[in-house]
Prior knowledge:
Elements (H helix, E strand, L loop, with lengths): L28 H24 L6 H8 L3 H7 L8 H16 L7 H13 L4 H17 L3 H26 L5 H23 L11 H22 L3
Helix pairs in contact: 1-2, 1-6, 4-5, 4-7, 5-9, 6-7, 6-8, 7-8, 8-9
Amino acid sequence: MCSRTLLGRTLSPVNRQPSRAPEPPALSLTERRKAATQLDIARAAAELFTEYGPDGTTAEDIARRAGVALRTFYRYFRNKQDAVGPLLAAGGDRWRALLAATEPGTAVPQALEKAIEEALCAPDEHAAEGLHQTRALLRAAVDDPALRAVWYRVNQESEERLIPVVARLAGADADPVQARLAAAAATDAIRVALETWAETDAAVEGPGSPAELAVRCLRQLMGGMGPLLADGKG
């Protein structure tokens, strides 16, 4: 039996309190410009994929739409499908930041659920547009293995970056295996929710929306892991 459980545990004042996530180092001006250029290229690629599909889009088209030289495109990306990576990863970056800002003492499942729900909601036109863009990319990925590979890679990288955030929230003495399982469950909940939503014409809010589906997936995945984690079996 595990001496402590991660899922369903609320950290009380007598437990060791998780520390706040350290602030990421400030980016230099050069790094900010590089990130901005990558995001401009990613947006251009997403627009063209939506309009013409990956097969009808070339790297030259993307560079032209983004207003950069072709050599600049290849400085940042290996191929046209790879170009949408920063756009697909942006949502994961946002929700990890929300989770990292969670108040100490919050139970991990509730913290994950709240961060996911907030990250996937569409309170304004910009957020709704981002979700619709993701839907278009996921639909295009159905017939494009290279684009699917980018989506899977983004999710894998997001899961790896999520593990220390979950572990910090759970406390220094939490079982690292449980932290990994919780990170995997949360990442898969979002991935499955977005893929499921992309197959439908459901709205960005309400029943069948990304946020509603992701919370439902998270509860089922973490509920299913409960006995496994409590028993400490792997």
